């Protein structure tokens, strides 16, 4: 017999740092409540721009190795113990921004065969058996090729993992009950940027980003789920700070290498795209899932 947490949440992201920015409060909350939180990151972000002058010599594989350490440090801040690199570290490389020649590199995620890449994720899904999976929308939230590809791979893997005819050698079929995309309601984003405008003189950043720079912003009606992670605001900020090559944090704001100030959202929002919605505005990703909603701790399952 092996012991498995009753509630199991899987998140699929493109680069180290995306998980902390998008879902840091959610991950910290569920980890603290005893759920198993599994992060699958598709690349090590080898083409990311480095913020600290003292680390700008890092690029390619050296930057990837450094970002792997940042990711581990961030996960310690969030209390998340299960972190996987899709297909193993270095299997898929950062594709860089859309339209760059980097996108043509045969080793990059953008060039990956989606079905093949999804099979790596199928193996993890069948091992962990998450009831809930979180990823980006079909535009990757903001059009980055790796984010679009992470979306495609995650959604394909959800289907393949449930199909007993697909790679039975990777474990028995598993159907994920609920799939969510990362969202920010437009009204919440607009209010946060209005506050940012007032706070800007006190911040180490000169220029604010705009609502259009925030991934996953949609009209409020599309948002199905609100996770209040305000109790985990410090953990989220610490996790973001751990990604020091990519993020500069001045709570409750941050900036990427473009130096544009953005709000840190500690209430995180989602759109349910698969599975049954439990109520007008869900406040728990596991809401309505038979047998586990509101439960904590572990259950005994056959290995
Ligand atoms: Zn990213």
UniProtKB/TrEMBL annotation:
Cofactor(s) it depends on: Zn(2+)
Binding site for Zn(2+): 15, 18, 147
Keywords: Hydrolase, Metal-binding, Zinc
Pfam families, per the entry: PIG-L
Reaction catalysis annotation: 1D-myo-inositol 2-acetamido-2-deoxy-alpha-D-glucopyranoside + H2O = 1D-myo-inositol 2-amino-2-deoxy-alpha-D-glucopyranoside + acetate
Broad enzyme group: hydrolase
Enzyme Commission number: 3.5.1.103
Cofactor note: Binds 1 zinc ion per subunit.
Top-level division of the source organism's lineage: Bacteria
Record-linked InterPro entries: GlcNAc_PI_deacetylase-related (IPR003737), LmbE-like_dom_sf (IPR024078), Mycothiol_biosynthesis_MshB (IPR017810)
Family in the record: Belongs to the MshB deacetylase family.
PANTHER family from the UniProt entry: 1D-MYO-INOSITOL 2-ACETAMIDO-2-DEOXY-ALPHA-D-GLUCOPYRANOSIDE DEACETYLASE, N-ACETYLGLUCOSAMINYL-PHOSPHATIDYLINOSITOL DE-N-ACETYLASE-RELATED
Function noted in UniProt: Catalyzes the deacetylation of 1D-myo-inositol 2-acetamido-2-deoxy-alpha-D-glucopyranoside (GlcNAc-Ins) in the mycothiol biosynthesis pathway.
UniProt name for this protein: 1D-myo-inositol 2-acetamido-2-deoxy-alpha-D-glucopyranoside deacetylase
Lineage summary: Bacteria, Bacillati, Actinomycetota, Actinomycetes, Kitasatosporales
Gene: mshB
């Amino acid at each position: 017999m092996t012991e498995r947490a009753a509630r199991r949440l899987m998140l699929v992201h493109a680069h180290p740092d995306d998980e902390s920015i998008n879902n840091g409060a959610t991950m910290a909350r569920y980890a603290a409540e005893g759920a198993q939180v599994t992060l699958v990151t598709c690349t090590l972000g080898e083409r990311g721009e480095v913020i600290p002058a003292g680390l700008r010599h890092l690029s390619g594989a050296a930057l990837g190795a450094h970002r792997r350490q940042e990711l581990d440090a961030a996960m310690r801040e969030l209390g998340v113990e299960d972190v996987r690199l899709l297909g193993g570290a270095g299997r898929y490389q950062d594709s860089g921004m859309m339209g760059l020649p980097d996108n043509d590199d045969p080793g990059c995620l953008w060039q990956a065969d989606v079905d093949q890449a999804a099979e790596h994720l199928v193996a993890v899904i069948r091992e962990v058996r998450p009831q809930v999976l979180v990823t980006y929308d079909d535009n990757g939230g903001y059009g980055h090729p790796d984010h679009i590809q992470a979306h495609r791979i995650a959604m394909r893997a959800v289907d393949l993992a449930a199909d007993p005819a697909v790679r039975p050698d990777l474990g028995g079929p598993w159907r994920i009950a609920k799939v969510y995309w990362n969202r920010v309601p437009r009204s919440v984003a607009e209010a946060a940027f209005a506050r940012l405008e007032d706070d800007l003189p006190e911040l180490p950043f000169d220029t604010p980003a705009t609502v259009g720079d925030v991934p996953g912003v949609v009209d409020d009606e599309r948002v199905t789920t609100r996770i209040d992670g305000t109790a985990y605001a410090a953990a989220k900020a610490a996790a973001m700070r751990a990604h020091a090559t990519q993020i500069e944090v001045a709570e409750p704001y941050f900036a990427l290498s473009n130096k544009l100030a953005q709000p840190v959202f500690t209430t995180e929002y989602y759109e349910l795209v698969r599975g049954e919605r439990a109520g007008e505005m869900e406040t728990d990703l596991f809401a309505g899932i038979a047998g586990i909603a509101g439960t904590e701790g572990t259950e005994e399952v056959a290995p």
